[in-house]
Design brief:
This protein has about 100 residues and is mostly helical. Helices cover about 50% and strands about 0% of the residues. The protein is flat, with a radius of gyration of 25 Å.
């Protein structure tokens, strides 16, 4: 019986290791405002805590956490709009030359 030289048992070579440059997203901007992802995580955390408190029957705490979620979500949206305005990204609703 002959032994194969370096090939796997199926006759194929092992896959090459993955590198970070293989996963670069073309045309995507880096995150300019790190508070937006943090705000999204805070919103998700408060939502999770509120749902857990409702599950255990603590509706008073759950209601307070749902209100806090609305505040956190509003702050995140305000950060998104503020950073878009600050960095000059404008929402264009109409094409040039058209009227509303």
């Amino acid at each position: 019986m002959e032994k194969s030289s370096g090939a796997a048992a199926g006759g194929r070579a092992p896959p090459s290791p993955l590198h970070m440059e293989d996963f670069q997203l073309e045309g995507k901007k880096p995150v300019k405002n790190p508070f937006v992802p943090i705000g999204a995580l805070v919103t998700a955390g408060v939502l999770t805590a509120g749902l857990i408190s409702f599950r255990y029957g603590n509706s008073r705490l759950g209601q307070k956490l749902m209100r806090a979620r609305v505040v956190a979500q509003g702050a995140t949206v305000a950060l998104m709009i503020g950073s878009a305005y600050y960095y000059g990204d404008q929402i264009k609703l109409f094409k040039k030359g058209s009227s509303p």
